[in-house]
Design goal:
mainly alpha, single chain, 17 helices, Ubiquitin-like (UB roll), 5% strand, Receptor-associated Protein, three-stranded antiparallel beta sheet
Length: 397
């Protein structure tokens, strides 16, 4: 469950955070370990107001990393860079968070510990990347790798979003036209045909009966449609419902395999970046497991167990079906040359290239099929509306 937590740090700095936890006891225990005093804990209800508040207070980690990288590359120290970021920040929530980080740095805490003290803001992956760089003194290099990682990880997602815009517009326009016909045009045609006697086609009769029902119970039909839409929106907003839907979606052979490939590409890219930052392979795998579905997480846990027992990463991934023939060869090369991080990232690039080609092919095929389907539906409604006229003309002749 998600909670809104207000807490005070040892230096009296106030924090307002949103934290996922099974219960309030877990939040209080975590706060005690971090030296915080809980002021208030409020369960967050799922509502449009809460969603908008959450979005408005979401800290831009990628932008923060870019700006911090630019300042460090310009020769500023970490504390000087934080001073600069605090001075230029206009958003109250972001400014308070930056001030808290700066205060922790002035207290002598490491940057990774300062980030770790902000639960729900900086991920374990981000904190581990910074912590690894503190051992080598290359914070700017680690931030550069993180920025590049985020940009490359978003390539496929942006491609999917851009490819879905046109089909979504087609569906929206086709749906609106169909609703206009069914809720406005058909009821008026049904009144015209009320006095027609004779053999009217069966499906035309059904369409006319629907028109008469809508005419007589317009408020009931509109209210029912709104209620169904609200129930569907609420059902989709639940994590369990989305997980169930994605599970069914992944069972479609062609699409399910591409979803699996997308998750594996994110896994390999994340683990590769962590390895290049100096984090051991098993620890890197544990940090990246949240990117996978439950089924793949079980396989990844099995692979991590085998690696702990001395099995090579390439063999462990193969045995648990967490790769492709290309990834297996690249991992074996990485094991021989000691460049596992680079080979993992190159594996992710191969997977992303294959996904990009499939998305282009699917888009070119799906768009004309969708246009044809919408045209058939709208055309069928129009033909069924005019069929009684055709029958009447035939009977007059």
């Amino acid at each position: 469950m998600r909670y809104l937590v207000k807490a005070a740090k040892a230096d009296n700095a106030l924090l307002t955070l949103e934290i996922d936890s099974p219960d309030e006891a877990g939040i209080r225990a975590h706060a005690e370990l971090q030296g915080c005093t809980i002021l208030a804990i409020e369960p967050l209800q799922l509502s449009l107001a809460r969603i908008s508040l959450r979005r408005r207070h979401k800290f831009p980690v990628l932008l923060f990393s870019r700006e911090l990288l630019a300042l460090l590359s310009a020769g500023l120290s970490l504390t000087e860079a934080m001073d600069t970021l605090v001075e230029k920040e206009l958003n109250d929530f972001n400014r308070k968070l930056l001030e808290t980080l700066r205060a922790l740095l002035y207290q002598g805490k490491s940057f990774s510990n300062a980030l770790h003290a902000q639960p729900g803001i900086f991920s374990e992956f981000y904190v581990a990347t910074v912590r690894a760089s503190e051992h080598t003194g290359s914070l700017a290099e680690a931030l550069g790798r993180y920025v590049k990682y985020q940009e490359q990880s978003d390539v496929i997602r942006k491609r999917i979003v851009s490819a879905s815009i046109y089909p979504a517009l087609l569906l929206a326009v086709g749906g609106l036209v169909s609703m206009f016909l069914m809720f406005y045009v058909v009821p008026r045609f049904s009144r015209v045909y009320e006095d027609i006697r004779g053999d009217v086609p069966f499906f035309s009769k059904l369409l006319m009966e629907w028109g008469r029902f809508v005419s007589g119970h317009a408020a009931l039909v509109v209210g029912g449609a709104l209620v169904l839409a609200g129930l569907a929106a609420y059902w989709l907003s639940q994590p369990g419902s989305r997980a169930w839907l994605m599970q069914r979606f992944r069972r479609i052979p062609a699409i399910g395999e591409r979803v699996r490939l997308y998750q594996l590409s994110r896994l390999y890219r994340t683990v590769g970046m962590l390895l290049r930052g100096g984090i051991p392979v098993v620890a890197a795998i544990d940090m990246a497991k949240g990117l996978l579905s439950n089924e793949l997480q079980l396989r990844l846990a099995s692979a991590a167990h085998e690696i702990r027992e001395g099995v090579s990463p390439s063999q462990a991934m193969d045995r648990n079906q967490l790769g492709t023939p290309v990834s297996s060869r690249l991992l074996r090369v990485g094991e021989r040359t000691g460049q596992m991080g680079e080979m993992m990232e190159r594996t992710a690039e191969f997977m992303e290239d294959e996904l990009a080609r499939w998305i282009d092919w699917f888009t070119r095929l799906f768009e004309p099929l969708l246009m044809a389907f919408i045209g058939i539906v709208i055309g069928l409604i129009v033909v069924l509306m005019y069929m009684p006229i055709f029958e009447l003309a035939s009977s007059i002749q």
